[in-house]
Amino acid sequence: MEILYKSTRSDSTPVKASEAILKGLANDGGLFVPTSLPKLSLSMEELSKMNYQEVAYEVMKLFLTDFTEEELKHCINSAYDSKFDVEEIAPLAEAKGVYYLELFHGATIAFKDMALSILPHLLTTSAKKNNVKNEIVILTATSGDTGKAALAGFADVPGTKIIVFYPKNGVSPIQEKQMVTQKGANTHVVGIHGNFDDAQTGVKNLFADTELAKEMDEKGFQFSSANSINIGRLVPQVVYYVYAYTRLLANGKLTAGEKMNVVVPTGNFGNILAAYYAKNMGVPVDKLVCASNDNKVLYDFFQTGTYDRNRDFILTASPSMDILISSNLERLIYKIAGEDATANAERMSSLNKNGSYNITEEMKKELADFKGGYATEAETFEFIKKLYDDCGYVVDTHTAVAGVVCEKYQKETGDTTKTVVASTASPYKFTRSVMNAIDPKYDSMTDFELVDELCKISGVDVPNAIEEIRTAPVLHDTVCEKDEMKSVVKKFLGME
């Protein structure tokens, strides 16, 4: 069955998967969503006998119906190879009765690698399929992890350039070092004076700038996105929830048909939306627990039915979740509103103008699968220490937020369903926060001394992603104001 993609903000003509991947964002500013969510064509038992790459093909072929088998398998096999440091790609680790889905074994040690390893291949294949002659300019805002994963994925990919904007003082030292040392003649990294929401809004405005698009087209360029607003990011993320269930089944941790809960540390909402899609495809998922840090805009939304970004922006030790505008939530809002594009466009306009919108009582009922929870900074650090003290397992700050919320949810509800926590980054990416949580004595050490100490206490080898930036020179030092983003882009492209 052919799956097409339509905008969440208008009833414009649906496009093929390859066109949606190329565009990133619909012309009306909406996000592309599938015209229907496909059902898995194989049983969980059949999928449990497959490896990661095979499961990826069985899931992604249902969404990307204009890709041939050869094209899609080439993309999958090019992405999920020796760049990952474990054969399983996304292994499960059990700690205190909870299963941690380790999504950080790729080139940049964060879950963004799971999608951004394949996106360049999906994008270049899409360009060929649609006879695109322009150079593709990947334009992305990052709260820390997407940036490096996108840079690594697109570095020196022919026919592409990539420009990443990040909040200058809003990412961890390791995250920043990873980005500013990125090699590749086609890569550009820019720190902005502002927070992630400023960077993301600036990027969305550039996408919506028709005058700029025309000017770029004349010069042989066109924008595309590597942010989770791109459907080519979301589809690969569905895979690892299907895979997680089949591993639990294969290892005898679940019986066929038995449900699992999923807890996801959430900022932009894409990662938990992928779990929701997996559930709708037929994976036996029960509750989708959305874990927030002190920027608990999503927690408040699930409690009240009002999305309200009018609040203080708090910088936390889990910076990839320091977000007040969760872009991917729009896809869910559109679905639970009965796919009413006009009503959705009105809500998004209200968010833009007033900073908030409400959903109806009927829509609230459609959210029964979701539970919101949040963790304070103190609870997050306490969790890291306790988990390490109890069983020697070390998690990063984002995973710890999910761990806290998982414990709170189980305690409040008495729910004993087997639970998978999405472990979204390696502790090596947030070494100072993690080591300080375990023992404040570590605070006097340098970042790389902490890396070696973490290796000693965890028994986990230092990932190559960290080793390679120890002595790497800074190659990107551009910093700009948030209203200068357009001029920076034009300068990089030799347009001014």
Please tell me about this protein's structure:
The protein has 496 residues and is of the alpha/beta class. The protein has a domain at 92-108 and 232-460: Rossmann fold (3-Layer(aba) Sandwich). 44% of the residues lie in helices and 15% in strands. The chain has helices at residues 17-23, 44-47, 52-63, 69-79, 112-116, 119-129, 145-154, 173-180, 196-207, 210-218, 231-250, 270-281, 297-304, 329-336, 341-354, 361-365, 377-391, 397-413, 431-438, 447-458, 464-467, 485-492, and strands spanning 5-7, 32-34, 92-95, 98-102, 135-141, 160-167, 187-193, 221-224, 260-265, 285-292, 306-308, 356-358, 370-374, 418-423, 478-481.
* Straight-line N-to-C gap: 47 Å
Strand content: 15-25%
Strand order of the largest sheet: 3-4-14-9-10-13
Helix content: 40-55%
Overall spatial form: globular
**Biggest sheet descriptor:** 6 strands, mixed
* Radius of gyration, in angstroms, nearest whole number: 21 Å
Which structural class fits the helix and strand makeup?
alpha/beta
Predict the CATH topology of the domain at 92-108 and 232-460. Rossmann fold
Low-confidence stretches: none
Give a brief outline of the structure.
It contains 22 helices and 15 strands. It has 496 residues and is an alpha/beta fold. It has a domain of 246 residues: 3-Layer(aba) Sandwich (Rossmann fold).
Defining traits:
496 residues, alpha/beta, Rossmann fold, 6-stranded mixed sheet, 5-stranded parallel sheet, 22 helices, 44% helix
Compile the SSE list and pairings.
Layout (H helix, E strand, L loop, with lengths): L4 E3 L9 H7 L8 E3 L9 H4 L4 H12 L5 H11 L12 E4 L2 E5 L9 H5 L2 H11 L5 E7 L3 H10 L5 E8 L5 H8 L6 E7 L2 H12 L2 H9 L2 E4 L6 H20 L9 E6 L4 H12 L3 E8 L4 H8 L1 E3 L20 H8 L4 H14 L1 E3 L2 H5 L4 E5 L2 H15 L5 H17 L4 E6 L7 H8 L8 H12 L5 H4 L10 E4 L3 H8 L4
Parallel strand pairs: 4-14, 5-6, 5-8, 6-7, 7-15, 9-10, 9-14, 10-13
Antiparallel strand pairs: 1-2, 3-4, 11-12
